[in-house]
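Recall the central idea of this unit: under ordinary conditions, the amino acid sequence of a chain determines the structure it adopts. In this exercise we apply that idea directly, starting from the sequence alone.
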Amino acid sequence: MRNTSKETVYPPGYYGKKMMSASDWAGTQVEKWERAQAEIKAADQFSQKHCICLSRGIGAGAMEVADFLSEITGYRVIDKEIIEHMAKDSFLTEKIIKTFDERFPGKMSELLVSLSVEKKFFKTDYAKQLAKTVAALAHTEPTIFVGRGTHLILSRHTILSVQLVCSKKNRIEKLANTLGIGNSEAEEQLNIIDDEHHEFFKKVFLREKISPDEFDLVIHMDHITQELQAAQIIACAFEQKFGVTFTAK
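Accordingly, the structure predicted from this sequence is:
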């Protein structure tokens, strides 16, 4: 894996928009779920949440697409930084699971057992904790996940899995423009990020490369160049797969 001494560093999930920190977001969400729990009767019927999982390389425009998609669907967006933060803080994940179990006793344990049987990569403690985190988040409310291989964790029939691809040339240019650096430095950083991404999938999911067979939809952002257009395509595919209708488009 490459190393660098460059001062300019690309923060995961960053694309020029100021966002709440992962720790602040997690704390706010736990408080939100706890307040909601106090108002919900335990007898409520459990219903499967359908989510959207976006997989991409840095510079493909996934966060911009996710923002537009959130406006269309009303779903929240959770990026890799938030998932990583919560996966490393088991207290937060367990708190979410506890809140969920108070509403639907035993259901989360049932879901996690089902996932462990269905998925063959749950070999490390980190992979198990990551799966618990993603499952807990996915079953609290409908979500648009960006990154961290969430499409490999959640059951295929419960999600719309989408891959956003883009030429390396355009990814470099976008990263350079976002950070205000030259193309050569942007390429160097992109190579580092891609190496880390590859190592993550190899270690956690036991995969050398991502296969198109893993996705319901692949969008090439060199040709569908507007993020809003990509979001509208994804929303339409989601409606067709799950039989829902979004009023805002």
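Residues 56-239 form a domain with the Rossmann fold fold (CATH 3.40.50.300).
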